[in-house]
Amino acid sequence: MKARIVPGSFNGTVNIPPSKSLTQRAYAAALLYVGTTLIHNAGNSADEEAARHMIQQLGATVTGSGPMVVTSKGIAPVSDTIDCGESGLAARLFAPIAALHNSPITIAGHGSILRRPMEGVADILPLLSVSLQGFNGHIPFTVQGPMQARSVAVHTSGSSQLLSGLLFALCACATAPITITVAGLQSKPYIDLTLDVLAHFGRHVSHDNYKVFHIDPARFEYAAHRELTIEADWSSASCMLVAGAIAGEVTVPNLFMNSRQADRAILDVLRTIGADMDITDTGITVRRSRMQGFEFDAANCPDLFPALAALASFCDGNSQVTGVHRLFHKESNRVESITEMLWRYGVTFSVEDDTLYIEGREKVQYSYMDGYKDHRIVMAAAVCALRAKGPVTISCADAVGKSYPRFFDDMRLCGVACELLP
Ligand SMILES: O=C(O)C1=C[C@@H](OP(=O)(O)O)[C@@H](O)[C@H](O)C1
Ligand SMILES: C=C(OP(=O)(O)O)C(=O)O
């Protein structure tokens, strides 16, 4: 599917969907801890639905059309394959979790996840007595436990997601104190989210400055009342806030300002560049204004890169976004997809070492955009289109379903003339 967007103003109120990172973690926790868990405001993007199906394949019952009611007796697989869809987090979260069980379970998926490296899996899981079959560095592969909890050392420079999976799995099977020693951790806020969800379920894990994580079952508490509400998604919000900042006025009522989500950092960027912004009890409003070029290190919030590239394209002067090395193994190679987007829009940019340099301008060229089958590229390209010199067509527009299925509906609600074409 393609999206054809006519440039124009973006004005309105947008209710941002639930955080997919938190929804996926909530499903993992609800599976692991025996009993019933109520998840309010769970998201329904493709990645969240993949996580929901995975816990069902691992034996949980999920019912409910409002709050999700998850009932679990622990891991009791009803299938020998669990399917992560295209979700990197679901693959890396549920591979160690599936390995808690003694039957062979294959982690399958489709699309871009088949190319994304599953770094650490072959180094770590066998040390925990998990056997691996058919592992060639990528999905699909088969794990067979039961995992034996032991202290391990993990190198995580590519992705933090396997560490999240290990934290969930080791908290579920540790019977004595153990440690996970971590080198090269990036995307630290995502580990904070993991620790927050574990703590919500009574599994308190401490760490020494993200280098050594201490899991001590003596510190665990029984979480009798298990209910949690998923915050709105700052990653999805970042695109809408940038759209307001460059093309009109947007109000987002449902964001949690003290969130620990990585992409809440968009707020710091908007403040730094002098965006016209009000934050009140009822939400955050951002209006189009002149904004200064900025310098920002996005290594810990890599999903912000596409939206930041869109924002920088309309700031005065030059901007620098560091952390390019975090972009190679996402749904697309985002160094390639972001720079191609900038190039097609006629924006002057360069990549030097780990930094993307962008020179802002008043308007961008209109063009045919390759969405790279990557939700964040499609959304960033759609936002830039608001300030193009003519209509823009973006391929693979349906990719937005991975995190923000209503993205184009919300654009239309904000007055954007946007057509979806086969
Ligand atoms: O744990 C998570 O929810 C995520 C962690 C990040 O990945 P990396 O740890 O691979 O950077 C992020 O890019 C991804 O979209 C979601
Ligand atoms: C990279 C992303 O997700 P994941 O790694 O979970 O597929 C993303 O949402 O941008």
UniProtKB/TrEMBL annotation:
Record localization: Cytoplasm
Residues at the catalytic site: D303 (proton acceptor)
EC numbers: 2.5.1.19
Metabolic or biological pathway: Metabolic intermediate biosynthesis; chorismate biosynthesis; chorismate from D-erythrose 4-phosphate and phosphoenolpyruvate: step 6/7
Major localisation: cytoplasm
Transmembrane recorded as keyword: no
Every Enolpyruvate transferase domain range: 9-411
Binding site for phosphoenolpyruvate: K20, G88, R116, Q161, R334, R376, K402
Residues reported in the UniProt entry to bind 3-phosphoshikimate: K20, S21, R25, S159, S160, Q161, S187, D303, K330
Entry keyword Magnesium: no
Keywords: Amino-acid biosynthesis, Aromatic amino acid biosynthesis, Cytoplasm, Transferase
Cited InterPro entries: Enolpyruvate_Tfrase_dom (IPR001986), Enolpyruvate_Tfrase_sf (IPR036968), EPSP_synthase (IPR006264), RNA3'P_cycl/enolpyr_Trfase_a/b (IPR013792)
HAMAP family linked to this entry: EPSP_synth (MF_00210)
Subunit-level organization: Monomer.
Role according to the record: Catalyzes the transfer of the enolpyruvyl moiety of phosphoenolpyruvate (PEP) to the 5-hydroxyl of shikimate-3-phosphate (S3P) to produce enolpyruvyl shikimate-3-phosphate and inorganic phosphate.
UniProt family annotation: Belongs to the EPSP synthase family.
Name of the protein in its database record: 3-phosphoshikimate 1-carboxyvinyltransferase
The species this protein was found in: Nemorincola caseinilytica
